[in-house]
Amino acid sequence: MNRFIPPSLTKAMPQLLSLAVILFCNYLAFPGFFDIRFQDGRFFGSVIDVLNRGAPVVILAIGMTAVIATKGVDLSVGAVMAVSGAVAATLAVHGYPLPVIVIAALGVGLVCGLWNGLLIAFFDLQPIIATLILMVAGRGIAQLITEGSIVTFTDPGLIFFGTGAFLGFPMPVILAAILGVAAILLVRRTALGLLIEAIGVNRSASTFSGINSRLILLLVYGFSGLCAGLAGIIAAADIRGADANNAGLWLELDAILAVVIGGTSLLGGRFSILMSILGAIIIQAMNTGILISGFPPEYNLILKAAVIIMILLAQSASASGLGIFLKRELKPAKIERQEIRP
Amino acid sequence: MNTRLLPFYATLLICVLLYAACVIQFPNMLSTRVLGNLLTDNAFLGIAAVGMTFVIISGGIDLSVGSVIAFTGVLIAVLVTQHDVHPLAAFAIALVFATLFGAAMGAIIHYLDVPAFIVTLAGMFLARGLCFVLTTQSIPINHPFYTTLQGLYWRLPGGGRLTLVGGLMLAVFAAGIIIAHFTRFGSYIYAIGGNRTSAELMGVPVGRTTIGIYALSGFLAALSGIVFSLYTSAGYSLSAVGVELDTIAAVVIGGTLLTGGVGYVAGTFFGILIQGIIQTYIVFDGTLSSWWTKIVVGILLFAFIALQRVLVFLSERRVTERSMARSTG
């Protein structure tokens, strides 16, 4: 079985259907929703805007998917975004060259992620607690770096990450797409994805069967931190400044929500990065739809809550084993065995 | 010595040492005025933290408290200023609503068997969204009854003031200790947190207790919202953002195990005081920025979790050694 083939269409049906419904609602609310025009060397349009605005959450969701597949959760990504944005902005203000800035900001994200991984893999802390530490302290550290103010910069190279365009598409979209493809190739072309799922299903069993669970957990959290670092650079470049208080605020929740909408269970095991990306796009399509329909944005959160509750109901109805999508939710371990077959 | 009590003693010791260190640097901190303010300023946090302690002892988590606090504040402000409802009636409405809200979350967690984390996350979005729907503005409350309540205090020796809200927090902590250690409901909570399956087999009504725990957390969050609205004299939909994290931090620093089953309401009280003392120190110092609070709280969180891990590790090793000694002997 070729593992690179994205999850079959039947499995993705509920998500694709909800995206179609949301897009159709957007179209009804705003007939020009699907209009795309080419101007100044790049595409413009509401659909492009959905992708562009959704890029940071997509990037976070890619890292979060791997984390959740190991039966963990990373609450610190929002705070790590603030830290990496603060590092990027501060270095840019001091006139460092672009490669140094990017590597430093990504490196800080990676270090934050590895710190989480260290606590979880080697000190056996619960993921929710271990990442809570950085979630609380991270914004403090970011403010320490920016010295409590909003650092604005004018480095054109760095700003390009947020508002530039490549091949007609906004830079954040390109970056998210590259990261997504790379991550999917990495987990599905190698055994890594399988090992991650094995740890999520049963960590001690995986360790006994010879998987280096600790190393993989460390890498997974490091990867999540790296993703958060990249998202932080984009968020900072987008507003041309680092706001330690608000950069990435509550995005960890959006990322978790995207993964859950994508059908990856919070109890670990089977995961799909592509579906999480789809989940993130669904969330953003909803946000954009509410904005352009002239609906008060106040209803955004209520709608989000309603969506989560509906998904919860759908996942719990799986207990009775109805439907293909629901069955998959019911018996992740069983599917797992089928997946391993050549 | 009971190793389960060690984290609590450690919290107590750190709280006293921290206060002593502050007093050495700023002798003025040793006054009942500072103590009174410490209680008043952290009253809303403390009341919400009592609810969170119960939730965490039961092995769950409640991310919705901050939003419920904000919603209560906004609801009361709207009812009092726009609909001429007496504050007491508004308080009652808010308490009933939040209790039902919590109970509904508990019911979803138990009957649909969904992780508490994701259910209360939905609750957090829902409550915050309801705030925005009610109003996006900050509504000041200028009701004579509010002025009366805010003016109530008991003068401590030395000029300090134990305000109504500070006293209410102490009362809630006292009630929390009684519920946790002297009622059947309290034992049920510890039993579920220790091991849900065995609790169920022993005949603990898991469903009713789970609903009760989250209803209690909702009720206390609303009470905390009332205190917050008395403290700020306003209702604002963006207030109390992130309070759930502060309360979780206080609970963990107070020695409650996040895996459930072990914890003390009194420990949470000192967890709140530690956070309050750090903040007061920063105010007294004047040169440090407020974000140092976050960093220090993060470091303390780490220290306490590390301490708990060491204790759990030691006690597990002792158990295995004992059982090995028994099997060989």
From TrEMBL, chain A:
Pfam families: BPD_transp_2. The chain crosses the membrane at residues 12-30, 50-68, 75-94, 100-121, 128-146, 158-187, 215-237, 249-267, 274-295, 301-326. One of its GO terms (cellular component) is plasma membrane. GO terms for molecular function: transmembrane transporter activity. Keywords: Cell membrane, Membrane, Transmembrane, Transmembrane helix. It is found in: Cell membrane. It is a multi-pass membrane protein. The keyword Transmembrane applies. The keyword Zinc does not apply. InterPro entries: ABC_transp_permease. This is Monosaccharide ABC transporter membrane protein (CUT2 family). It comes from Phyllobacterium leguminum.
UniProtKB/TrEMBL annotation, chain B:
Keywords: Cell membrane, Membrane, Transmembrane, Transmembrane helix. PANTHER family: ABC TRANSPORTER PERMEASE PROTEIN YPHD-RELATED-RELATED (PTHR32196), INNER MEMBRANE ABC TRANSPORTER PERMEASE PROTEIN YJFF (PTHR32196:SF63). This is Monosaccharide ABC transporter membrane protein (CUT2 family). Its main location: membrane. It is found in: Cell membrane. The keyword ATP-binding does not apply. It is a multi-pass membrane protein. InterPro entries: ABC_transp_permease.
